[in-house]
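Blinded run. Sample ID left blank on purpose so nobody reads anything into the name before looking at the predicted structure. Input follows.
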Amino acid sequence: MKNQNGKKLGKKQLRAITGGLQMCIDPDTNQCMAYGRQCAELQCRYIP
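Blinded prediction complete.
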């Protein structure tokens, strides 16, 4: 993800966008890499 200046955001800045939650979806496969309450995506929050 990039900010308005075109610079890539760091891990700390990306975490602030999602409210301190971890991004658990792999962008290549669109599948959850991890499951749990720490995930920002709803489909990854609960174990299927």
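Unblinding after everyone has recorded impressions. Residues 8 and 17 are 13 Å apart (CA to CA).
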